[in-house]
Each structure stands twice: as structure tokens, then as C-alpha cells.
Amino acid sequence: MIQLFQESIPFSNKRLDAPASQGGSFLNPVIMPFAINATLGSNTFETVLYIRNTSIEHYYNDIVISLMKESATGTGTGLTSGILKTASNQVFLSMNSFQNILTTVAFPYSESQATTKVLDAKYQQNYIPITPSTDMNVDVKFSYGYDELSELDWQGLTSVLVIPMIGNKTTPDTSYVPIRMRFTINSSPTIFTIRDYFIDVSYVFEGDVI
Asked: Which end of the chain is flanked by fewer CB atoms within 10 Å, N or C?
């Protein structure tokens, strides 16, 4: 199972012992400790979260990290699947009516041919992945790893992160994988709460370690 952990103090590399979420269910409110980017003079926050495979018997391929919200109006009822498409060495996410969202790939795939893969998770049809075109109020980007990034580095990243694998069929990986998230509030609404948004961690394949 993949669990999500949060830091106890921003950028301390000290994690809370209890997972904030696992198996698609929230155990605690997932509100990460964050820091304001005073240099930019904007409502830009950064935080670090961790994901971890807790089982030495399993490995995962194509882990997808994104920020989502629930649409007030909705786009239908029932469940739907997300799809990852690889084309021209780029990876795109499609879910519900949102197609071909460019992702950031944590490290290169071992193969680069065009593929189409269905995510294991099932999404409500009114879930919206946060991108510049789906939510004008906020902007979010994810970076693989703990390191602080320059403004130029952030400009090259996207709102969806794909990790090609955690472990493989001969070697499990139960380490804590750090992911840095930058969250920017673009508008000045009367009332704003980050609890309108949630972090989603999904994957294409769960395999057995031999």
C-alpha cells in the first residue's frame, strides 16, 4: 500500500509518524505545513510531502501525484478512470473531460514508445485535476525530490508528477519518497481555504516482488 506522510515542521526533513492518508482514505486532514515565498511577494507557498510503499511484497509502476478539487456543479455521476498516454517522450494525463494534461516525469522511462495506460484508481466524475486551465484561482506544481528549486526550475515543471516506478519485480523499495509542492493563490477571493483541494496519489500497476 502507498501511504502519504507530511512534515511536522516546514523543510525540516522530519516526518510525522502517522500517515496523513492511505488507500484513498484520509486519516487526518491533509494540510501540509508550508512556507511563504517572501522573495516573490506573492501568495506562493511551498511544502514537502512524502509517499511510501509499505510492503516489501509489492512494487508500483507509473505513480501519479496531482492536486484535485470536487466540482460544485459536477460533470455527471458514477466513477471514471484516468489514462496516461506516452507520446514523443512526453507523458499526458486524461481524466473525465480533461484531456492531455502534460505531466512532469520524475526520471526517464526505460522505454519511450507510445503507450496508453489506465490508472488503477476510480474517480468521481466531478473530480477536477488542478491545472492553469481548470482553476484560475490557484496554480500548483510538483517537483520530485526534496531539494529547493530556483524560479527558473519551477517554470519548467507542471501540475502533475509521474514517477515511473517505486521498486521493481526483483527489488522492493520502502523508502520515503519526498515530493515538493508549490501552491500559488492567483486571485483575491473574499474567503479562501486550501481545504477545497486534495492531493491524489494513484498508479497504473501494482506488481508482486519475486
From this structure: C
